[in-house]
Amino acid sequence: MISVNDFKTGLTIEVEHDLFTVLDFQHVKPGKGAAFVRSKLKNLRNGNTVERTFRAGENVARAHIENRQMQYLYASGKEHTFMDTETFDQITLDEKQIEWELNFLRENMNINIMSYQGSEILGINLPNSVELKVIETEPGIKGNTAQGATKNAKVETGLNVQVPLFINEGDVLLIDTREGDYISRA
Predict the structure, then answer these.
(1) Which of 2, 34, 97, 131 is the most exposed place for a label (fewest CB within 10 A)?
(2) Which tens digit of pLDDT belongs to each residue from 67-109?
(3) How far is the C-alpha of 140 from the C-alpha of 43, rounded, in Å?
């Protein structure tokens, strides 16, 4: 058990049989009444974000989430297969579980799989940025260089990204996995 007074961003907790990660929290001490902790929590099972208020000093169960390094092997229809890099065990995840992450996954890429109590797979932990190759983009037009001019580029995973005009097909880009934005050329 952990006190809500000890909340930290990124902490995983179990509340009413659901698993949450703490995104944000604020200790509130009103002039009248008892202190409380206002928190923003992300449900690890369905991805929903909720706001929840706890009484100061209230205890919640701490959820121990395991991160195992795995390699993305291949897609077969709507199922995606991953292999544990140590034991060579393979697991299959449905497309719905990793919908956003598929925009950044390439075959043979190493990532972390989050699991709860060793058996329930919660999802994928991607690195903050990944390198992806541009497969399709229009050429940049000279004279079309107003401040911050961008164009659309399609990368090898199928993700469309807004990039500067100097990016060409075949370039390798550094892409932010949290927002899906262009960072720089790799």
Answers:
(1) 34
(2) 889 999 998 988 999 999 899 999 998 888 888 889 999 889 9
(3) 42
Calpha distance 111→124 (Å, rounded): 7
79 and 105 Cβ atoms separated by less than 8 Å: no
Tell me the CA distances in angstroms from 78 to 70, 92, 94, 159, one per residue in order: 19, 10, 6, 17
For the chain, how far is it from start to end, CA to CA, in angstroms? 44
SS3 149: coil
Residue 169, token pair as written in the block: 């097909």
Determine whether 1 is exposed, middle or buried from the number of CB atoms within 10 Å of its CB (0-12, 13-18, 19+). Answer: exposed
* CA 173 to the chain's CA centroid: 19
Name the strands in the sheet holding 160-164, side by side, starting at the edge strand that comes first in the sequence: 160-164, 150-155, 129-137, 172-176, 182-185
Amino acid at 124: I
Asked if residues 46 and 82 have their Cβ atoms less than 8 Å apart, the reply is: no
Token digits for 65?
Answer: 């989430």
